[in-house]
Amino acid sequence: MITNALTIDVEDYFQLNAFSDVIRYEDWDSFAPRVEGNTFRILDLLDSVTVNQRSEVRGQHSQESDNKRPFGSVTNNKQESDEYKMQSDKSCLTNDSPKATFFVLGWIAERYPQIVKEIHSRGHEVACHGYSHQLIFSQTQEEFREDVKRAKELLEDIIGEKVVGYRAPTYSITDKTFWALGILHELGFKYDSSIFPIKHDVYGWPGSPRFPYVISFNDEKSNLPGISKNINFDKTSYNENNNSIIEVPMATMQVFNKNVPAAGGGYFRLFPYFLTKHLLRGINTKEKKTFVFYLHPWEIDTDIPRIENARVFSRFRTYVNLDKTITRFKLLLSDFKFTSLSEMLFRN
Ligand SMILES: [Zn+2]
Fold first, then answer.
1. Ligand 1: distance of its center to the CA of 292 in Å?
2. pTM of the model
3. What is the Cα–Cα distance from 305 to 281, expressed in whole angstroms?
4. How many angstroms separate the alpha carbon of residue 63 from the centre of ligand 1?
5. Interval between CA 172 and ligand 1 midpoint (Å)
């Protein structure tokens, strides 16, 4: 069974770019925090997913609305059931719960170091989401460098280990901000997971590769934005000491030659689960590739305070189907195998 990457962007409900026109950075401390409880819920949920749960009562027909069904009893046909039985038999040998990469915002790490410690002590990867969650388009190169350096050092002080992964706030590395990759490389990051190969009103780089690739800083011709010159990432031949950084895009599917997002977040809440599952399953089975999925702690929280004066579209995008996230997330953990990005990229 292919092991995919699960990623959680650890930030709170008032820090979203969608609300940046009505909530100032200076006022963040005045909001009631929800991030600690929500992150711990996700950690507990991941710990609760054992191989046994994955394999229990496979074969029952299930529907998303069936909330009474025991967690894990998810499959729609016999072939899938057999497939899972085989997989779970194999993975019984390791008996491990899924691992994830948590991209933690520096602002959060500074105020709640216990969250970072807990993520680390439960065997997940701690990675960097910058300090202040500002769009990179709005920063100078020096501001970007200082923001990311501050967050990286904070995280490393808390866990006592190097942090090698980065994700930009609101996926704001695009063809306009590709210079950020060189700075990330200079700061010691081994991989970046910020470029979304789709068309979107805020972010996205349509036409960029859909699967992990290497950006080399040795050869000018292979640098972005001449993105087609970059090479696919292959963990068996990749040399970590090379002058390069790995880019790991979010999951997409190609429909009529267009990349459709299938990676999580708002799309996960908006699309019915069977569609997300179908798209992700296609990446694993038809394309025989891994995918990267993402979620935010606030997305499992139906009680987050609503930002009433925000734009209607921002409110819709943020609050749609919050009550469905947990059920869908459990189904996802049951239907696919996950690990952290570092594990996926660097371990055999
Ligand atoms: Zn974020």
1. 15
2. 0.85
3. 34
4. 31
5. 10
